[in-house]
Design brief:
Elements: E1 3-7, H1 13-28, H2 34-44, H3 47-55, E2 59-66, E3 69-78, E4 90-98, H4 107-121, E5 126-132, H5 136-144, E6 148-157, E7 160-170
Amino acid sequence: MALTLRACTHADLDALVNISKETFTAAFEKDNDPKDFQDYLQKAFRPDKMASELNDANSLFYFIFEGKELVGYFKLNLNESQTDIKDPRAVEIERIYVLESHQGKQIGAWMLQEIIRMGKKLGKTFIWLGVWERNPKAIRFYQRHGFEKFAEHPYYIGTDKQTDWLLRLDLQ
């Protein structure tokens, strides 16, 4: 499996919106109220909102390709663009998704290693992320890669208040 990554640009906006909706839907639609889920999907992945995020120098989107096929993406946040911690020593993984048809190929682990490499290159001391407390598969994945829970915060899907575990990986 030859994987590569490429930073997203404004020319990628439509593809970014589409893969974001597709992967988020595959991951979470079945576990959420349909109205709340659709409200969230329309709000979080609006083209104008995602274009604004692409304009943010502290938010970094990357596409992952297997050969020439787009198979996943991730979004990192730095400095004040982090959703919660806002620590200049940190990198936040806000999104990391692999298309359902390509799961089980270790693409997520490859992406995580690339993120760790990027974090070190940026001189950051830790990586953190939020993961839904009702997503044991993802929690196990991050724990296998050395992440540890350090806090919790609320996360809303529509009007449904959920709890995310905040996980951290020290880079030192």
